[in-house]
Amino acid sequence: MAANPGRQGRPWRRARQFVIHYYICPVHGVQHCGICHTYVDITLPGTHRDGPAADHIVKLEDGGAPRDPANLRLVHHRCNSARENHGRKRRREAQVARPSRDW
Asked: Of all helices (H) and strands (E), which one includes residue 88?
């Protein structure tokens, strides 16, 4: 099984490029980050912290469609990473073993 199912290969790159180049914020009418609502400079590379990235609105592990444009939104690379790390921390805290009784 692939390490990132649905997030690699040509179909993913096409979906990502579609979101980066054609996503227009319905409220502001320009390309704004879906998380922090500030302008996203699409001329920066995707690896730059302020560069563009495609974010899954409904996470894949929660049943979101991997390449559906309706499930993707334009975000900064840093905002997407922060959201991802926050979710990991929350899942990790939920998995911490609880003692069987109070000592």
From this structure: helix 77-94
